[in-house]
Structures are given as structure tokens and as C-alpha cells.
Amino acid sequence: MDASARSAALDDLAVRLRDRLVAEAGDGDGDARARIRALVEREAGMLDAGAREALEVRIAERSFGLGPLESLLGDPKVDEIMVNGTAPVWVERAGLLEPTEVRFSSEADLRHAVERILAPLGRRVDEAEPLCDARLPDGSRVNVVIPPLALDGTVLTIRRFRRRGLSAEDLVAIGTWPAALRDVLAAGVRERLNVLVCGGTGSGKTTTLNVLSSFVPAGERIVTIEDTAELRLQQPHVIRLEARPASVEGRGEVPIRRLVRNALRMRPDRIVVGEVRGPEALDMLGAMSTGHDGSLCTVHAGSPEEALRRLETLALMAGVGLPHAAIREQVAGAIDLVVHQERGADGARRVVAVSEVVRVAGGPAAREVYTFRRGRPRWRLAADGGLLARLGGQGAG
After folding, report:
1. 211 and 93 share one domain
2. Is 260 a residue whose pLDDT tops 70?
3. What global pTM score does this model have?
């Protein structure tokens, strides 16, 4: 029997013995680990010592942990875990997706694992509410979609939380940005420029936002606002706010927009919004334009130009009746720099463009000051040096 077949056989046996353990749960007391060991010795004593030990681990995982996901959660190189029903689990390592030999033996086992994740958080998924977003105690993000919305079985996605966040120097080392760009952006944050970070899903926007926020001086009061708390600022005076979804009864929702409005009453020096994705865009633009300079946020967009257009669209969703021209003018006056990040085919996440926001006749426009193309960085200076020169980037090459 080859290794994969042996592993599969142990998994099947672990499922059967775990069911036996549950059925016998009321027959006696004592330590659960000891009962597992006794069960294995009684039902699988013919296996060698190594196989019995591996079987005990599998039964324990299915009884107390997250089943077959335990081995992936223990791998520090895994950044994201994607469970697609009972099909093989996929993971992301170093920015690239790859399948694993890990899988759930049944939909019921997968649903049990989901319940063990959500129950301590006071959350649940069922037919009435088949979608759920949650944050684990360690900061990892969890998303669950169950049938009938997920046609091929429950879909579970876990984005791992790095215990040690990346620093500005780490981003230089892994090629996210060159040292010259790091210095320019650090100067921009210290000079209280309003910075918008844009990019697609998984491009590293939140990581870059977290590093940019590290350039904020320690003496300032910072309020962070997120759908799911991911930012980890090291300054001594940070207030963290997290949105709350509606309960099963449809009550108690506290959206990002309400938190942004409330943050204005909390005497912030800076406001950092993890992601702008709705009508809170209008409130964020208002904050940036009325004395809260140096604020930071992210938005999903494929280019700096698209990021500005998306902000306009999101601000219009506020439904306050402002003419489009007024919102465009507000965008032009609020945002100073747009940092665009992409994830390449090789899995590397890089800042590929930085643009200064300038006013033109039709509203805001993005003027590139830095690009990364064909493997090389390039700086573009305006005739008068512009914003880049004021930040000390005029000598960047």
C-alpha cells in the first residue's frame, strides 16, 4: 500500500472511530485523550505503533479541532486555506495557489468543523443565513458559504493572520517596493498627505496600508476602522473600531459608514479605513477635506485612475443628492497620492504605480510619479518637480 492510500485508509478509520467515540460519550468519564488511546488500542491494536499514534492524532483532530485542517493551520508558510466541499483543499503559499492531499471525508464533517469555528464567536450559518464572515481570536479571517448558495458543498476560506507583521524593510527585501519609494511614501505620510491604496483581491493592499501607517509619528491619535480587524499599528495611541453585521433577527448592524461618522467625534489626528467599499466613501472624503489630513484607506481598483472613479461611484451611493461635479471636486481636494499594487503571475506582490492626484477641468486626474514595468522602476518628474520633489524623491532613480 502506497503512502497516499495508507493515509486515506487511516482517515476513513479515524472517521469511524470518532463516530464510535461520540456514541460512547455517555458511557464513562475521564480524560478524552485517554479514551481515544484506549479506543485505538481496542479497535486497531493490530497496527504498528506509528500508525496507532497517527490514528490517535486524526481522531483528536476530528473530535476537538478542525479536522484535517489542523496540519495546514500548523504550517507557517500557508497564508490562505480554501475548502471547496469534500474536494481537495487548496492553499496559498508565497502568493501561489496549490492543491493539497487534505480533504474532508463528508459534508457532515466539514459542517461540524465550521460549527466549531463559529460557535465560540457567537456566529452561525444555516438555511436562513447561508453566508458568514468572522474573525478568529488570532485575527485570521473566515468566510463561509453553505448550500444552497454553494452548489458543490460548503465553501470555507480562512485567511491566516501573521503573528509578526511585515515591516517597511521587509517589503523592500521581498520586492514590494524599492528603498527610494519607501522613503518617498514615508515622507508623504509624515507630511500628512492623504493616501489611497488600491489593487485587486489578494494584491497585498492591507499589508501595504499597515506598513504605511507605521510611518505616522508616535504622538498622534489614530482611529482605525475595518470590516474585519486586520491592521496592527504599533503606535501607543491607537483606537480600533470594527463593523458589526446584523444579527439573525436583522438587528444591531453597525456599518463602516456609521463608524467613520463616529470617529470624527473622537478627536482623531488620523483616520485609517481598512477598505472603502460603500457610501462611507463620502464621509471619508469629508474627513480628509476638513482637517483630518494624513488619513489612509484602501479601495478595490485596477489602476490609480480607476480608483478615483470608484471613489466617486461609492460616494454617490450615499444618496445625499450631491451633484456628480461636486463629488468629483471633493475627490480632487481630498486625495493626494494613490498607491497601486498588483500580484504578479509569480505570486509576488508589488507596488506598480504611484500617482499624484491633480485637479483638471473635469475634476481629479492621476499623474504618475512612479511606475514599475518590465522589471524596472521608473520615476516621472513634473517640470516643476511637483509633489515628488517636495517629498525628497527628485533624486530617485
Report:
1. no
2. yes
3. 0.77
